[in-house]
Amino acid sequence: MQRQSLMLIAPRSRWLRAEILAALAGALLFSVSLWGDYVYDDYDIVFLDQRMHDPRQWPELWTQSYFKTGVDNLYRPLVSSSYAFQWWIHGDRPWVFHAINLLLHAANCALVVTLARRVLARSTSPVATDSPVPLLAGLLFAVHPVHTEAVVNIVGRAELMCALGALGAVVLLLGPRLTHRRVLAIFGCFLFALLSKEQGMLLPLVMLLAGALLCRFEASERPPIKILLILICFTLAGYIVLRENVLNLKFWWPRGLLDWQQNPLVRPDADTTLMPVVLLGRYLALLVFPHALSADYGGRVIGWQVKFADPYLWIGLATIAMWIATLAFAVIRRQRGLIFLLLGLATFYALVSNAGTLIGTIFGERLMYLPSVFFLILISIPLARVPTRLLVPVAGVLIALGCVRSFSYAVVWNDPTTFYEYTLRHQPRSAQEHKMLLMNRMYHNDLDGALRVGLLFTGLYPDYHDSWLHTARVLMRLGYFDTARRYIDRSEGVKMNASTIFARRELAEFRAAAATRPATQATQVPPPPTTLPAPELRPPNP
Q1: What is the per-residue pLDDT for 533?
Q2: Contact between 460 and 476 (Cβ < 8 Å)
Q3: For residue range 121-169, what is the model confidence (pLDDT) as tens digits?
Q4: Does the structural domain 418-515 have CATH classification 1.25.40.10?
Q5: Which residues contact 149 (CB under 8 A, 6 or more apart)?
Q6: Residue 7: what pLDDT?
Q7: What are the structural domain ranges in the chain?
């Protein structure tokens, strides 16, 4: 097949209308986030990290961990630098950070349309490129509720930037002709993805699949291909050496550094064989029916052991069987585009699946941002074969439902207090949300409310050190020093770490300050229950 026959037969202006429509849909839908504040890790990574606020510390963004106040092995210097550069320009204005996220998501929506069109153009006849698949895939991607966290949470920018680099590289590779200039652009996209998030390391494999399955390179294109291979191989090798041996940011997370509340699969009694299958089932359920959304699935929300009555186990097994059957069908029918989409989906999903190696979190909606591109293009192909008189209303209903759910969830993210309370109502067993709500109420000087959350937290998670430690901080602010000391002791008994040392120093400072003024508290509150509360336990009303 000649390279010219792979070009789309529609006018270029007609192509761009689909890209623009998808981009506008994504940007307008999530524009509600412009009224949002810092939520979750936004505080630690953007608001509190002094490296973002002092240009003299900017070099540290390229030599240290992404999360300076946390314990992780993440290295995302390009994302951190974008926060720092923005802070230098406009300072403490959350809406501008959100605006950049909106623009990134809009660009990704347009790239999804282009990617779908070029995959179709290289795997079927040129006439098929007039199908509604590209526009449908782009619109579904623009409004899908599972993308809400990545777009409206400022630190979701890592997902957005990595996806932008990855999609840009594949789209350029599938362009009309590979030149030296295009090679440099592809390499730049690869660097952009690699320095934004760890999934960028998988981009060379996806590009290799795209080249092998969808490209028919001419003789004049072989020198640029060789240059591209050399650039990517040496850069990826240097990146690995830099992280492993120079920066000491290991790719394999030591189990001692993983917090079981965020990834309970680190527990010695965790079922690490079947739980990844359960997680696959949960991801598919979110992609198909994204009704119940949450920012936290760790601790006892999903758990760490598998029961054969768990429906997500069987959904996961069915998903694996369906993927294998579809791949076999595509191979038999020589549907190269379908093969590429299936393998691309599996490649980018593999890193976040917790199969083979554990990552910092057991499950996260934001982790589906890039893999969902291939999934949504896949489901758009059979959906587009529906007769036009049915396709328009069906697609309209799906897009409308996605808009409603994404908008309603994005609104919740705008206010931290509302967001934490909302999440706790839907995930009452979430340790992370208890901790965030407790800290939020302390920040607003609602110490009585923070204490109620803390008592609930320690009752639900008596085996988690942070539940005792954060409640102790509330108690010492209320003047219950002896009880606060006992809580710190309990935290230390569960897990010894540096946080308990700081908490004891903080307690000593509060005692010394209280000794200089009349005592305001004469009694001590009783310790919380040490047994797990009943399943019907719910967080306190605000």
Answers
A1: 35
A2: no
A3: 887 644 355 688 999 999 999 999 999 999 999 999 999 999 999 999 9
A4: yes
A5: 156, 293, 295, 364, 365, 366, 413
A6: 41
A7: 13-410, 418-515
